Amino acid sequence: MKILCWNTDDAVWMHWNQVVGLDTELTRVEVRSEVHLAIESAPSYYQYCFIYLSDKSFSQDVEDVVALRAAFPNQKIIVFPNRASQTAALRLFSAGVSGQCAPYIGQEQLSLVLSVVDSGEIWGGKAFIQQLISQSSIDVVADAKNELEDLSDRELIVAEFIAQGLSNKEIATKMDITERTVKAHLTSIFKKTNTKDRLALALLVQSN
Hints:
- The chain is an alpha/beta fold.
- The protein is built from ten helices and five strands; from the N terminus they run E-H-E-H-E-H-E-H-E-H-H-H-H-H-H.
- It has a five-stranded parallel sheet with strand order 2-1-3-4-5, sandwiched between helices.
C-alpha cells in the first residue's frame, strides 16, 4: 500500500511510520503544491492521502483540503486534525473527505479506519458521531421516522449501535455474531433506509 502524506510535523510523521503496516510505503510532502503534483503525476499510485492539520494554520489547512478534494474527487483523503472542531469536521466531510482521526492514532485503530474507508464508508470516530447526532441544528428529513420501519429487529439493533458510534468489530462482539454478518446487516440497512454511510444512518436513528 502506498500513502501520500502531507505532514509538516516531524513527531507526527515519525509516529505514522511506526503505526503503518510493514507492507505500507509512506511518501512525505510538506506543501500543497507538492501534493497536487504527486497526485497529478500518478493518479492511481496512492491508495490514500493522509493530511495533518496543524493548529497554527488550521483554518487555511481545512480550506486547502477542501480544494484538494475538489481537484481530485477520486482520491481517498484522511485528515488528522490537531484541533477538535465540529465546524471543520462538517466542512471536510461535506467536501467528501473519507475519514478523520487523531494525529497519534494507534496501530490497531488505524488498521480499522483503513478497513472501513476501503469498504466505501467514512470514518469520523465515535466521539465525532456522538457529538454530531446530539446537535439540534442538524437538518433531518421530515419523513425520516418512516425509514426504519422496514428493518428487522436485528437490523434495528445494529442501526442503534451505529448511532452510538460503535465499529463493526464492537457490534459483532456485543451481538455475538461475526463481523461479516454485521456487514451483511449494514448492506441491507443502507438499502432499506436509503442511507449511504454510517454517518447518515446515525443521524436517521437519532432523529427517531
